[in-house]
Amino acid sequence: MLRLNSKLEELEEAGQSIKVALAGAGQMGKGLVSQISQMKGMQIVAVADLYPERGVQAFQEAGLSDEEIIVTDSLDEADEAIFDDKVVVTRELRVLTRLVEADVVVEATGSPNAGALVGFLAINNGKHIVMLNVEADVTVGSLLNSLAENAGLVYTLSAGDEPGALIELYNFADALGFKIVAAGKGKNNPLDRYATPDDLIQLAAEKGVSPKMLTAFVDGTKTMVEMNAVSNATGLVPDVPGMHGPVTSVEELCRTFSLKSQGGILKREGVVDFAIGDVAPGVFVIITTDQETIKKDMDYLKMGSGPNYLLYRPYHLCNIETPLSVALAALYGEPWMIPLGKPVSETIPVAKRDLKAGEILDGIGGFTTYSTLVIAKVARDKGYLPLGLVEGARLKRDVSRDELITYDMVELDESSFVLQLRRLQDRMFE
């Protein structure tokens, strides 16, 4: 890793800092405020949230007094407050992304529409953008990255989330010339595609998260989105629609994620997938090599006798690691993780139950759809609707349980900003 710690310490000693503006003060955002508060050379100067009290609470928990926190939706007042060494809480994303003092914007709302808007406005206002919002990335990340590159800015996914942790292992193996057999993550919850927020109220309360957020994990949607981001950043593809998701263990990963001819489950190498079992909360890459000398070295180094070898990271620290990608963007102008270009895979909504014409689809972690992952060309050929566009869509016809949602099944919300960006992205790659 580049000398981020030394560079941040140098900033601190010079009386300078990387100034961060944060969109979203939920669980991830609140933790990020506290994490950055203990770091050298970096500070969060503003938080935007629909509920300002959440932003105020985030700063209070990080040790700031009420006198240091200014709540305002005025850009002039916000800029003046930050200049006077205070911090700002606002409802307005447009204020957050225009702050004179902000160097980097972190998007942590979890909403594809808000993420698209924040990403676009940040780039338009000359700010680097770090996406904790993977849902927005897999919908319009290719376009946002292109816009950022053209503006001389950084668009990047965050360190710490499973995709950001996984890309470290992938880049390590790919740079050394190993062949990638599979890259994946452990799923934290048992898979129940038909789970709804009502089913998970008690468990969500015990975990201190919203039932909707927990549902997105339990029904597999978050896993599909996360591995979609990895696919788009590496070129690896799902071996089958929705991936395999076997029940296995760290000890068995190499055997499980090998070709069928080797006793495994894969039809091909170069895939993304996930595992249910003791793999969570870790991420893994399965590698192989044709070089006999390297095979002998790997055996000598206690990596096993092959033909496949496991690279495993047993943790990911989510928002706690996000400052690393903030620093990399601000100090070196480098992204932690970006889409390669044209999307490689797409996350597609699937009916959780029999749905009726006229129903409004409620989006990620809701009552109407779960998600699956397919190769992007298949999605285009079949007219599948990207997950990021599903919220607010009205069904034009009945849809059966487990049926994949297509564009021609729905009327989309034309006021949706993410829809407009997605159309631009599609035209860019036509």
TrEMBL record:
<dbReference type="Pfam" id="PF21135">
    <property type="entry name" value="DRL_cat"/>
</dbReference>
<dbReference type="Pfam" id="PF08666">
    <property type="entry name" value="SAF"/>
</dbReference>
<dbReference type="InterPro" id="IPR005106">
    <property type="entry name" value="Asp/hSer_DH_NAD-bd"/>
</dbReference>
<dbReference type="InterPro" id="IPR036291">
    <property type="entry name" value="NAD(P)-bd_dom_sf"/>
</dbReference>
<protein>
    <recommendedName>
        <fullName>SAF domain-containing protein</fullName>
    </recommendedName>
</protein>
<dbReference type="InterPro" id="IPR013974">
    <property type="entry name" value="SAF"/>
</dbReference>
<dbReference type="GO" id="GO:0050661">
    <property type="term" value="F:NADP binding"/>
</dbReference>
<dbReference type="InterPro" id="IPR048423">
    <property type="entry name" value="DRL_cat"/>
</dbReference>
<dbReference type="GO" id="GO:0016491">
    <property type="term" value="F:oxidoreductase activity"/>
</dbReference>
<dbReference type="Pfam" id="PF03447">
    <property type="entry name" value="NAD_binding_3"/>
</dbReference>
<feature type="domain" description="SAF">
    <location>
        <begin position="346"/>
        <end position="411"/>
    </location>
</feature>
